[in-house]
Amino acid sequence: MILSVRDLSIGFRRIGGDLPAVDKISFDVREGETFVIIGESGSGKSLTGMSIAGLQPATSVTSGSIRFKERELLNRPDAELRRMRGREIGLIYQDPLGSLNPVWPVGDQIAEALRAHGLASGAAAARRAVEMLDRVRIPDPARVATAYPHEISGGMRQRAMIAMALIAGPSLLIADEPTTALDVTIKAQMLELLAELQREMALTIILITHDMGVVAEVADRILVMYAGRVAEIGDADAIMRTPSHPYTAALMTSAMISEAEPKQQLNAIVGVAPGLGSFPDGCHFHPRCPLAQDDCRSFVPPLRRLGDVALACHHPVGSDTALMAEA
Amino acid sequence: MVNFLLKRFAWGILVLLLVAVITFFLSRVVPADPAAFLAGQNASEATVQKIRAEYGLDRPLTEQFVSYMVGLSKGDLGQSIRTRRSVSTDLAQYLPATLELLLVSFTIYLIASFSLAVTAARHPGGFVDGAIRLLTMVGTGIPVFWLGMALQFMFFYKLHWLPIGARFPIRETAPPVVTGFLIIDSMLAGSPSALLGTLKHLALPALTIVINLLAVGTRLSRAALIQEQSRLYVRTARGKGLGPRVILYKHVLRNALSPILTATTMQFGYMISWVILVEVIFDWPGIGLYAYQSFQVFDYSPVIALAIVSTAGFVLINLLMDILYPIIDPRVQSVGS
Ligand SMILES: Nc1ncnc2c1ncn2[C@@H]1O[C@H](COP(=O)(O)OP(=O)(O)OP(=O)(O)O)[C@@H](O)[C@H]1O
Ligand code: SF4
Ligand SMILES: [Mg+2]
């Protein structure tokens, strides 16, 4: 187990009590796998991902435990976490243009990750940045290294971000919606590149997305988040084949519908996800859940094992009466 | 880029021309007779007439205007009735004093506003931020003439720390004039005591100007820094393991420089007008005091010259900024060319 998250809560201070955005979530990430976190906008995916590297907003309050390679990371002093960022944990983000500094050449920003950890300096670092650009399949890497971010394409920028994240040799890559800003062809190339690099560099990848298509493509295991909590977690194939949590099932249906008729952006899930501070009692999903019953409105469903997966639901899809009686 | 700068330069010339025209007519609107003033109360009408003729004041206004503009196009700024010398000669004597005060004030302003802004932006809303805000606001809230007098009272009359009036100790011999800048001339003469005397005389007027502009300058730079600190590239910089110092000085500051530069340009414009006022308050022998004394006896040409020179200063600093922008921000280049 390269990463173990236990009872992680991330909240924001408000007068009259903290607002929880992530509520006691737990999960493990295995070495070398692609672990996908999926959920609607605002479900807490980015907060979860960023907190692993200690990059959650300064205004947030965190509790629980994040153990990376047997070391506790949560609420460590920033100066200590800094030594791990880039060196052991690499990060890429949704908006490559905004995530790159507009006034420095791309190559310089990549080389900086080596310099930050004293791995190389000066011309040697610059040379290795060009090599790294080549490794992420950028044609004419020497030219791109001297270009400014606004002078290269969106796909190139994200490749440059990957080069920056991986140049200091981390074993874990956290990718927060790396393909969302890109068009379909570039998106496929990017996923392919990540898979290749994963093999070459023995990477563990945590991929955050709200795109079921991405999940089907790359996921070994998935974590489905809804309104700050774990809905379902487990083997990707098992979940994709027979989603047991009503929310996962709804996500899959809407993905299938939009794939069959891409023009018709149908949403199989009625209503919208609740925002921060307006989470309902009981199961957070109950106002939108077709299977909701009275107990769902009052009692938070505990995470329970069901075959290859674990899920938090009182009345899973296709559950028999025995299961319901047990609940 | 060159094309763009040439266009800006042409605009600058046009602005200067307009300023010359406007100040010329404004000064003639004043119902006063400089010739009578100069001749004195007991002078005969004939004497006054003679002076009028000498300075062309008896000719029709349009004729005076045309001859002034023709002279201006040749670089002739006219004659001063008061000093009985050409305005250009006077300017050559007084301009270095003004420039020295302006440049010293500007340097102090840059260093002070910048370091205060960086300190304040470290913890926005914190105690240090609040203290800096309060103190600079007080400095700006005080009217400049009162501030000048208060500083004179404190450091000259009470504490006897710093001198006022003139640019150099009266009892000492000034270094030989080479550049007209006393700091440089003292250094060229290799005289530390002359340099010290010069700096002491500069201290209070410069301080008055800087204190007055500090609040706005600090606030603008602070706002630019805070805005940049929340950008996504800062998270990226942290994500690769950079420390707060590198992030501030290499990433944030470089991006905040463009808005800071814009603010600085405006502040420099204000500074030019404050220098003129402060020269009067501190008896500083620069072009501000020169124009003020000329204005008191309705001697027009030095006043118009001051307007032209200070506008030229402003136009020049804007031109300099236009050159600096693309160097600071690579994204600007494509817009300029
Ligand atoms: N700095 C912050 N201050 C206050 N609330 C925040 C802050 N950052 C995030 N939140 C809130 O926390 C919740 C979870 O945010 P998060 O960014 O993790 O969502 P997400 O699942 O990544 O969504 P998306 O798909 O939109 O990126 C949201 O409701 C958001 O409004
Ligand atoms: S617990 Fe109830 S409301 Fe929540 S997902 Fe399951 S069935 Fe739906
Ligand atoms: Mg997100």
Automatic annotation (TrEMBL), chain A:
The keyword rRNA-binding does not apply. GO terms for cellular component: plasma membrane. Residues 5-252 form the ABC transporter domain. GO terms for biological process: peptide transport; transmembrane transport. InterPro entries: AAA+_ATPase, ABC_Ni/Peptide_Import, ABC_transporter-like_ATP-bd, ABC_transporter-like_CS, Oligopep_ABC_C, P-loop_NTPase. Keywords: ATP-binding, Cell membrane, Membrane, Nucleotide-binding, Transport. The keyword ATP-binding applies. GO terms for molecular function: ATP binding; ATP hydrolysis activity. It is found in: Cell inner membrane. Its main location: membrane. It is a peripheral membrane protein. PANTHER family: DIPEPTIDE TRANSPORT ATP-BINDING PROTEIN DPPD, OLIGOPEPTIDE TRANSPORT ATP-BINDING PROTEIN APPD. Belongs to the ABC transporter superfamily. This is Oligopeptide/dipeptide ABC transporter ATP-binding protein. It comes from Kaistia hirudinis.
UniProtKB/TrEMBL annotation, chain B:
The chain crosses the membrane at residues 101-122, 134-157, 202-221, 260-282, 302-321. PROSITE patterns: ABC_TM1 (PS50928). Pfam families: BPD_transp_1, BPD_transp_1_N. One of its GO terms (molecular function) is dipeptide transmembrane transporter activity. It is a multi-pass membrane protein. Residues 95-321 form the ABC transmembrane type-1 domain. The keyword Protease does not apply. It is found in: Cell membrane. This is Peptide/nickel transport system permease protein.
